[in-house]
Structure formats: C-alpha cells, structure tokens
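Tutorial handout. Part one gives the primary structure; part two gives the three-dimensional structure as tokens.
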Amino acid sequence: MSNVNIEESNGKLTIDVLKDYWSRPQDSEGKPDWSHIFKFYHEDIHFKDSVQELQGYQKFTEMSSRLTRRCKRLEMKLLNVAEFEKGFYFEWEMTMKFKIYPASTIYGATRLLLAEDGRIIDQRDYYDIWGDIFDNIPGFRRFYRWRMRRRMG
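Part two.
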C-alpha cells in the first residue's frame, strides 16, 4: 500500500511517512479507508475538529470509519507539511464524493502532537466545513458568501 518503508523510519512518524500514509485514504481495492494510519495513534488520542471532540482510540477509529463508509470516493492531498519539536502541522485538501451528492473539496489544516512514545496523542483539525460544502452548490454559493460577509463583517 505504501511507498515509504515504515521500518526504515524505525516505526517513527516522519514527514515522508506522514505524506505517504495520509495521502492514501483507500484500501488496496480503492475503497475509502483510513485503517492503515491507526497504528500511529496513541490509545489516549484526543481529537477535535469543527464538528466534534472525542477522547480515546476506539472513538477515534469509529469516527474515521464512519466517514469512510459514507464516502463513495475519498482523496487527500497534503500541502506544506512541517515538523516541529512536538509534532507536525500540515495543510490539506480533502475531496469527498458521497454516494448521492456531488464531490466536495474541503480545505483545512491539521496539528498533530506526539506522545513520548512517538504516537499521535492529540489531533486538531481546522476547516470551514459549511463554507467549503456550500461553495460546491451552484446558486447557493453566492447567497451563503454574501450572508457571511453581512453577518461576520
């Protein structure tokens, strides 16, 4: 599945491993699947995004699996990946094609903090889910953006 040999990185999450594993949200048959990245997560993972906040490996993997089950197609493009002392930061474009709706691209960023053992202990995703989804609906995009400018300045 992966072009990067995880053993060569001593099982450690590196920029190359991150780019390779996170940019492939599919199984070997091309179906949406994130399970190959679960090995990088700590059992006490804390996750937060614009929609939800959860604690624990089981809840995190269940949430990730729900997303992939809802998608007919899922693509992830990582941009501007940076490593810092305690983790990683990267920008991304995620395109989701749901079973009955047109494809939507969401633009965001993620901060990953690592535990002492090198696994991800905290993940914070930043994105504007409604703006990015509404931008893909012809006719509604202009109304939504106009309304947001009026309400938010």
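Part three, for discussion. The chain is about 25% helix and 35% strand. The chain has a mean pLDDT of 86.
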